[in-house]
Design a protein that fits this description.
single chain; mainly alpha; Ion transport domain-containing protein; potassium channel; transmembrane helix; potassium
């Protein structure tokens, strides 16, 4: 293993260890009570012991302390050797790592000064440490492909959220009035906000069963809500699968290249039929420069073998056709002059 691989393994180990400690320290068997002992000069009660709250076992603190020392060193080294500070601050992983590390030190500083319900509030904000799982995308290509897939499908996912919210509001109102039309003493839908919970659970096809319609009209609304949820959620799935297949094929092709030639393309760079468009623009730019007609002819032969039809790019078709004819005439004229010069040399 190389030094980079060793550092990567250590980083993944501390990330997983930190997440496990964060989860296990909430288990009742790994918590100790905070006991408030109060002494009174009273003949009836000499000692009063009250159980206020619980805190995690001290062993979890030491484990997290060692892990956060590693995270602090790693973050400092990345910041020190980053070529541009603006580039460092634009990366979401660095921001998450900084906030998660600061949350530990803040929790440590406030540990002895805050008790009771305020302690639960501080521990709630430490949930940001779970976001360190996003650091694993730097070490596993599969997670990186999945993250890039959702990033490329952001518009489709936002459209899905919009239609789901629209359906939730509509079916919450329908189920509220449907249950009130008929005589229903067991009506559970007392308001539209209560129906919002039922609508989202039904559209997501979960169905906890805590709230169910009792009238025939309400059952009809519930059936339509479930069918609409299945159709709405299934709409963006082909787009997400297509983007995942595109990024996966790119990653597979990149893994077969030599390491010096590898480059990770951004999501906006991996688009269907981008090769033909780039070829046309390359040819148009070269034909306006001082390029030898013979070399342009060889370039023309390579570009004309492209499988992308020019009709897909009507705004470039005219320029490409004009440059194509011009290059052909220049190459033929150059070859004729060369043949005439060679014939005259032979006659001499």
């Amino acid at each position: 293993m190389t030094n980079l691989q060793v550092i990567s393994v250590i980083s993944v180990f501390f990330v997983i260890t930190s997440i496990i400690c964060f989860c296990l320290k909430t288990h009742p068997n790994f918590r100790i009570p905070d006991i408030d002992i109060e002494f009174r000069n009273d003949s009836t009660h000499a000692l009063v012991v009250t159980k206020i709250a619980t805190r995690a076992h001290p062993a979890f603190f030491y484990i997290e302390f060692v892990s956060n020392i590693w995270f602090t060193m790693e973050l400092f080294i990345r910041f020190l050797f980053c070529p541009k500070i603006s580039q460092f601050t634009r990366q979401a992983v660095n921001i998450i790592d900084l906030i998660a590390t600061l949350s530990f030190y803040i929790d440590w500083a406030l540990d002895r000064t805050i008790t009771g319900a305020n302690r639960d509030t501080v521990e709630f904000f430490s949930i940001i440490r779970i976001l360190r799982l996003f650091k694993l995308t730097q070490h596993f290509s599969g997670l990186k492909i999945l993250f890039q897939t959702f990033r490329a499908s952001a518009q489709e996912l936002l459209l899905l959220v919009f239609f789901v919210l629209l359906g939730i509001v509509i079916f919450a109102a329908l189920i509220y009035y449907a249950e009130r039309v008929e005589t229903n003493p067991d009506n559970q839908f007392h308001s539209i906000p209560v129906g919002l919970w039922w609508a989202i659970i039904t559209m997501c096809t979960i169905g906890f069963g805590d709230m169910v319609p009792k009238t025939y009209l309400g059952m009809l609304v519930g059936s339509l809500c479930a069918l609409m949820g299945v159709l709405t959620i299934a709409l963006p799935v082909p787009v997400i699968v297509s983007n995942f297949a595109m990024f996966y094929s790119h990653a597979q092709a990149r893994s077969k290249l030599p390491k010096k030639r590898r480059r990770i393309l951004q999501p906006h760079e991996i688009k269907p039929m981008v090769g033909g468009l780039a070829s046309i623009r390359l040819f148009n730019s070269l034909t306006h420069k001082n390029v030898s007609p013979i070399h342009s002819s060889h370039l023309l032969d390579a570009l004309t073998t492209a499988t992308t039809p020019l009709l897909m790019y009507p705004h470039l078709t005219t320029d490409f056709t004009a440059n194509l004819q011009s290059t052909k005439s220049k190459s033929h004229h150059c070859m004729n002059n060369k043949n005439n010069i060679s014939d005259s040399n032979k006659n001499d």
